[in-house]
Specification:
This protein is α/β, with parallel strands linked by helices. 27% of the residues lie in helices and 18% in strands. The chain is built from 5 helices and 7 strands. The N terminus and C terminus are likely disordered. Bound molecules: guanosine-5'-triphosphate and magnesium ion.
Length: 243
């Protein structure tokens, strides 16, 4: 499948009531321990060759420009300035690696769909992104971030199709859930859930970096993908919750 960049520039956000809580599932059984706070920036790679070669397992954060990828990485790791956040879409132009212990990485990918980037630059990103997704052996899962107010646009759907075809687990964060009222957010969650229900290894949840919605759930998914076998707590000891 060919990945391509769509034109999209959407920053005209409207305010809405806040969601104060999210459905948190019971993660007490078989929890794997990962400390998300102990994280450090490793490198920014312009292409696949420049990516770290010690990676054992990594999860990439993908999504349209401005969807909240960098914010989500900061929220999950509890570091407000780890990944660069900007009101200007297209801020993340390189593949940024953050290490959670030896050989385990969170990867902040350049956003797709930012209309104001020159075509030449956009073509280059597209090629690098596609190469990374297709060839990066350490990639164990994709977090797809999609703004809850306009979820699953065409490119997002292509990412989902590609992940399913490639047998790569994919977890969708419906981001900025604080922008919708609780009921509207739940309705969107259910509607998207229905759409992906038949797909293997595709899961989803609500998420808000601003209001810390769904952070534990996202950490549990990341731990599941990234933690090494010796981190697995077979007994399901509830004291070993992800931090
Ligand atoms: N209300 C609200 N705003 C958010 C949330 N998450 C991110 N934002 C805002 O959305 C804008 C874009 O966030 P980023 O995290 O930089 O988005 P990105 O997906 O990394 O963008 P690119 O690097 O351009 O691809 C910033 O102004 C953030 O403050 C959220 O949960 N709620
Ligand atoms: Mg970013």
């Amino acid at each position: 499948m060919t990945l391509f960049i769509l034109e999209f520039d959407d920053r005209d956000w409207t305010d809405a009531s806040l969601i104060h809580s999210a459905e948190i599932k019971d993660f007490s059984k078989g929890i794997k321990k990962m400390n998300f706070n102990q994280v450090e920036f490793v490198t920014s790679a312009a292409n696949l060759e420049a990516c770290p070669d010690n990676s054992l397992a990594e999860v990439a954060f993908a999504g349209r420009s401005n969807a909240g990828k960098s914010s989500a990485i900061n929220t999950i790791t509890g570091h407000s300035r780890l990944a660069r956040i900007s009101k200007t879409p297209g801020r993340t132009q390189l593949i940024n690696f953050f290490a959670l212990g030896e050989g385990r990485h969170l990867v902040d990918l350049p956003g797709y769909g930012f209309a104001k980037v020159p075509l030449k630059v956009k073509d280059k990103w597209q090629r690098e992104l596609e190469q990374y997704l297709r060839q990066r052996e350490a990639l164990v899962g994709l977090i797809l971030l999609s703004d809850i107010r306009h979820p699953l646009k065409e490119f997002d759907r292509m990412m989902i199709d590609w992940a399913v075809q490639s047998d790569l687990p994919l977890h969708i964060l419906l981001t900025k859930s604080d922008k919708l009222k609780r009921g509207a957010a739940q309705n969107t969650l259910l509607a998207v859930q229905k759409e992906v229900a038949t797909l293997d290894n595709v899961t989803l949840q609500l998420f808000s970096s601003l209001k810390n919605v769904g952070v534990d759930e996202a950490k549990a998914k990341l731990s599941d993908w990234l933690a090494s076998p010796d981190m697995i707590d077979e007994a399901g000891d509830t004291n070993n919750l992800t931090t």
